[in-house]
Each structure stands twice: as structure tokens, then as C-alpha cells.
Amino acid sequence: MLEAIALTKDFGTHRALDGLDLRVDPGEIVCLLGANGAGKTTTVNLFLGFLEPTAGEARVDGVDVRADPVGTKRKLLYVPEQIALFGELSGLENLAYFAALAGIADRSSTRLRDCLAQAGLEPAAMDRRAAGYSKGMRQKVGLALAIAKRARALLLDEPTSGLDPQASAEFHDLIVRQRDAGAAVLMVTHDLFRAREVGTRIGLMREGRLRRMINAADITATQLEALYLEEMGRMAA
Ligand SMILES: Nc1ncnc2c1ncn2[C@@H]1O[C@H](COP(=O)(O)OP(=O)(O)OP(=O)(O)O)[C@@H](O)[C@H]1O
Q: Taking every annotated instance into account, which residue ranges of this chain make up the domain ABC transporter (predicted)?
């Protein structure tokens, strides 16, 4: 569903992403871990068509993002670290607005409320102004859009940073539900523990390169941490 083929991005003379080969199939969650500046967000932005690759291809459902930026984006849902909502509008009104922008045909209030409920937003909160929403509640509106859109792939960039542990666990449960419904999920995170819990595979990135791809089932959290530190060079001495 998501495929990077020798994907490369330079910013001036700096190579931010260097020949990335990666595949995320329907029904799996691939987590990207790595130190700041490793090229994780650049990868997500290339799949979204926010950046043009210097070389290689980012494909969504077999289509090069550059060849059909609008069509490929329609199949994706992007959840950034901070979801921006209109504070004066309710959660439901925000969802209705973004659903219209995304070209979703069925935007009845009943359907959108159902999507918000599936994303875990309390019914009582749906009609309250989003200005009073916590970060966790805003993320749920983002996920509700994925559900409304029937997005086939989710691109998540540090979606739970700053969430309390309970909200983070709840968010990850929702992602797992999307995976079980057949979505392909690419998640950038610094949370090694959650990556191992929910990830099918875990990629370790450093300085623009994918250094290692690990099957989450083959490794304990402690082993993952040791591998991570080793790859990041902190245990090199
Ligand atoms: N628009 C840009 N212009 C110039 N350099 C950029 C740009 N975007 C990213 N970079 C550089 O590319 C490299 C990779 O950045 P990227 O944001 O992909 O890292 P990351 O792995 O997501 O890091 P973090 O964990 O801090 O979010 C960094 O050196 C960064 O400074």
C-alpha cells in the first residue's frame, strides 16, 4: 500500500533521506524510530507529496505520488503531532468541515457522530467547542476523519507525544483497530515501548538511512532498547 523505492531527499547539500526502501502492507503497522534529524518526518512528507523527492519514488497503492498527488492523498490520512482544529467550532462541526474538504460524500450528522464515537470521543464532547479539547480529544477528531474517509493508509507523525499514558494507550488501541480493519499504518514515534507493543515491524533510522528493520514479535522491549542505543552509536565506545 505504501512503498518507498530508493527514496532520496536532499536539502541543499544535506542528504536528509538516503535511498530508502520500505513497504507497508495493508493490515500492518510499521514504526519508524530514530534520533532527531534521522529523516523520519521527511519520509512522511514525501508520501504526502508535501516534498518532491530528489531521487527514487514514494508510491501509494502502486501509484507514484508525483504522478497523482491528489488521488494518492485521497487514500491517506495524516495525523501530525498537533491536530489543528477551529476552536470556535465543535468537534462535530470540525469533522464536517474536514470531511467536506476531503470530498467525503456521506457527511450526515448521524454518520459523522458514529465516526467520532468509533474514534473514542464521548458523545457529550462532540457538540462542545474544540477550543476546550485536550490533545487526546483533538487526535480523536483526526482519527474520526480517517474512519469517515475509509483511509487505506495512515501516516502518523509522533501522534502521541505529550499525551498522558492512558490517552496514549487509548490512541494506540484505536490505531490497532484501524490496522485490523485493513489499513496500512506508518507511524513515526520516539516511544520504543509502544512501537514494540503495536508495531508489526520497527525500522531504526539514523542520518537519513534505514539501518535496521526488526519484526516486533521477535524482540523484547529491553532488546529493542539495546538495539536502538547500539544503532544510534551511543554504545559504540
Ligand atoms: N525543509 C527543510 N529544509 C532544510 N532542511 C530540512 C528541512 N526539513 C528537514 N530538514 C533536515 O533534514 C534532516 C531530517 O529531518 P527530519 O525532520 O526528517 O528528521 P526526523 O527524523 O523527523 O527528526 P525529529 O525526530 O526531530 O522529528 C534534518 O537534518 C533536518 O534539519
A: 2-232
